Every structure is written in structure tokens, then in C-alpha cells.
User: Fold this.
Amino acid sequence: MSHARLFTPFRVAGLELRNRIVIAPMCQYSADEGRATDWHVMHLGHLAQSGAALLTIEATAVTPEGRISARDLGLWNDDTERALGQTLDSVRRWSDMPIAIQLAHAGRKASVKVPWEGGAQVPPDAAGGWQTVAPSPVAFADGQHPPIALDKQGLAAVREAFVAAARRAARLGLDAVQLHGAHGYLLHEFLSPLSNRRDDEYGGSLGNRLRFPLEVFDAVRAAFPADRPVTVRVSGTDWAPEGWDLEQTIAFAQALEARGCSGIHVSSGGLTPAQTIPIGPGYQVPLARAVKAATTIPVVAVGLITGFDQAEAIVGTGDADLIALARAILYDPRWPWHAAAHFGASVVGPNQYLRSQPSRYRNLFATPGPRS
Ligand SMILES: Cc1cc2nc3c(=O)[nH]c(=O)nc-3n(C[C@H](O)[C@H](O)[C@H](O)COP(=O)(O)O)c2cc1C
Assistant:
């Protein structure tokens, strides 16, 4: 019998999780006009066998111009919904791991090449590029083609696109929606004074900068079934002078909590090339700890969490309720199996692989049963 907190169940609103390990959203840049492809079946399929508690589908654009690159996953029409539905059918046939989706709009960081082609901006007059939108006409980096500031009609259209995508996510039976409010994408651009230079009710004071992200949250919360979680991923700080910081993050998290947000996932950075990040093991955990201390809703820590004991310490000391893995679980898709073996705990493994259980970890595989 293991005493590891990492392998104790946890509940996020109505969603039962078997342990505290979450798979973070990871863009795959492998969609076809927003439609999931067979890459997604392979990618999500193998992660769904990892023994983690929750699989989060990558940043999924709510409009075509909200994609980071032309290869991003989308959920803005029947075609993209159908393609994702087929992917989910395959994944779910072989795994009962709950699946969340991150809904996103890339704002001024849209229209770039995929990372393995260098990630440079594709201007609107170049093939495969488009005009970006943002709170203010301020480019992410010097020399880039600037975004157009969203007017009231544009704001309403973006909000409605988030709502329509959330409805599609509900129809697809997705277990949770996460709004992407981090990494310098559109919602974060409204939050940060470095990217939001508006002089209307959506810019200036902290209350005004929170307004649009909170409106989107309210609209999505109302559109997604009440018994399924809606969470928000935030950047806890811009790591840049005069930028978004932890104090403002806490105010945002408290406002979200008051509106029925089911959890906060605390990342950081991504808003400005001027950021200086003190990168190192667990470097974002202090941000999660501060949000956790100031709220009562579930908090997820992420960022260079790679070790089993490191993960256990974060959950065990109460710095966060859950830990999320991105690169570590791509590198080792059986990370939760190995963590369970390390702590003498168990995971749900696929029947086809049960004979892989090493004799010294006789109780590694739990009998698959209901999650609750
Ligand atoms: C390949 C890759 C794709 C990513 N895509 C997303 C994404 O779609 N949405 C998001 O919020 N973060 C994304 N991230 C950031 C991760 O979710 C995570 O926050 C970050 O990598 C730090 O965690 P790690 O040290 O465990 O990798 C991505 C990271 C990687 C490595």
C-alpha cells in the first residue's frame, strides 16, 4: 500500500481523477485546416495509455485566425468537430482516461510558421499568413506586422467563437474545458499592461484589463454543462518590468473563483521577448503555491517537473493539488507507470500490456474499474 499523495484520487468539480498527474496541453502543429489527423490518434492514443489522471488536448483554436500556425488544431465548424470526434472515438475505444480540451485564440502571436520551420511570423500578404488581432495594435516583437485592435463587434465575435467551440466540446463528450489565458495569447494580451494599451473599458485599470477574459469565462461557463469543469490556464507573471505579475494573477484567480471557475493552471511568461525567466526545476511552483494560498479552488503546477519525488513533494506539501507534465511525458510516455512503481502505487494499464509488469512491481496495474 503506497502512501504517495501523487497517487491519491482528486476531484475537480464533478470530475473524478485517479491520481494527481495531468498531461499538459501540447500543440502538435499537425492538423489539416484545423482538422485532427491520424497523428492525433497516435499522439493522444499513446498518452491515454500513460496512467495519468487527465489528458489535455492541445491549444485548439476557436477561429481560423486564432491559430498560432496554419497547422494548428481547431474547433470552429462541423468539419473540425467531426475530425476531432473521430480521433476521440479511437482514443476512447481503448482508454477511459478523462479528456479535457484547451480552447485558445493566439491573438497577436498568430500566423507564424511551425516551430520546426523556425516559427517566424508569416505576414498577411505572404502565402499561409493572415492579419492578426489583439487588444491593441502593438506587435509582439520589433519589426513584426502589427495586429489590428479588436473593436466591440470583434470582441463579441471572439467571445461567441469561444462559446461555439465550448458547445462543440460538450457535444464531443469532452470532460473539461480549459481556457488558454497564458503564454501571451489573446486572453493574456488583454490582462497584461504591456500588450493592452486600450483606453476603453477593456484597458487601463486592472479591473478593465480583466473584463474581457472574465466575459469569455462567464460565457463559456454558461455554455458548457454545469457538471463539467471549466478551468483557466494563466501566466503567473510576464517576468518583465511593468508587466502582468503575481499580485494581478491572484486578483484574476479570485475573480474567476467567484464566478465558478473549477481550477487554475499556473504557467508563466510568453507575452514579451523582454522576459527573463529564472528557469530551473519547478521554477513556476512558487507561483502556483501563491495562487493556492489565495484561493480555495484546485491549482495545477507545471514547468520542469520531471522527478517522481519532486512531483510528490509539490502535491504532498500542498503547493498544488495536481502537477502537469509536458516535455517529461513526451520523453517518457510511461512516466506515471514508473512513478507508481517507484512509490509502490498502481496505475490503470491497457489489458494488452498487462504482461509487461515487472515481477518486482507485482501490484503495479490496478484492475480497471470506474473512476469514482
Ligand atoms: C511541444 C509543446 C507544445 C506545447 N503546447 C502548448 C499548448 O498547446 N498550450 C499551452 O498552454 N502550453 C503548451 N506548451 C507548454 C506546456 O504545456 C508546459 O507548460 C511547458 O512545456 C512547461 O512544462 P514542462 O517543463 O513539463 O514541459 C507546450 C509545450 C511543448 C513542449
The mean pLDDT is 97. Residues 24-27, 58-59, 102, 180, 182-183, 233, 267, 302-305, 325-328 surround flavin mononucleotide (CB under 6 Å). The first strand starts at residue 10 and ends at 12. Residues 270 and 353 are 39 Å apart (CA to CA).
